[in-house]
Specification:
The structure is a single chain. By secondary structure, this protein is α/β, with parallel strands linked by helices. It folds into two domains: 48 residues, RecR Domain 1 (Helicase, Ruva Protein, domain 3), CATH 1.10.8.420; 117 residues, Dna Topoisomerase Vi A Subunit, Chain: A, domain 2 (3-Layer(aba) Sandwich), CATH 3.40.1360. The chain contains eight helices and six strands, in the order αααββαβαβαβαβα. β3, α5 and β4 form a beta-alpha-beta unit. α1 crosses α2.
């Protein structure tokens, strides 16, 4: 297999790119070798070497802990639990939440063989203090609700059961204030 075929096959693995789009992208990169392809290759190499998951929340950053966990302006008593990084980044773009996050890395799914040990649930439970506000920003699917229930039950075994879903959190904060 040629280098061009390898490039096309690797590009086709990216989300949203099928074989035809990957072929067009490969041709674009080759035609613009100095302007696009070489800087892109260098950036990919640097990113692969420097970016790692935060040991506290699971976000990606070049430092550990990540910038969100290190930010002194954030409320350490509120943790928003999300399924994956895309959810964290979407919430961050809104600027509405100023607490900390916890990325689970998926949801519980008996059909797919994903249990609590495959997710970052134990690390989440360990982070929870007696006064920590827990906001479960999980999808309203069977798997998301199952995961929320499991986290709630795990937290109850540590003494405090109060939690909020993402939809209820703003209303509860307004009522509290």
């Amino acid at each position: 297999m040629s280098e061009l075929d390898t490039l096309i096959q690797l590009l086709a693995r990216l989300p949203g790119l099928g074989p035809r789009s990957a072929r067009r992208a490969a041709l674009y990169l080759i035609k613009r070798r100095e302007q696009v392809m070489q800087p892109l290759a260098a950036a990919l190499g640097a990113a692969a070497a420097a970016i790692r998951p935060c040991s506290t929340c699971g976000n990606l950053d070049t430092a550990d802990p990540c910038a969100i966990c290190r930010d002194p302006e954030r409320d350490p008593s509120a943790i928003c639990v999300v399924e994956d990084l895309a959810d964290l980044w979407a919430l961050e773009r809104t600027g509405a939440f100023r607490g900390h996050y916890h990325v689970l890395g998926g949801t519980l799914s008996a059909l797919d063989g994903i249990g609590p040990d495959e997710l970052n649930i134990a690390r989440l439970i360990a982070r929870l203090g007696p006064e920590t506000e827990l906001i479960l920003a999980l999808n309203a699917t069977v798997e998301g609700q199952t995961t929320a229930h499991y986290i709630t039950r795990s937290r109850a075994s540590r003494g405090k059961l109060e939690h909020l879903t993402l939809a209820a959190a703003p209303k509860a904060r307004r009522a509290f204030q």
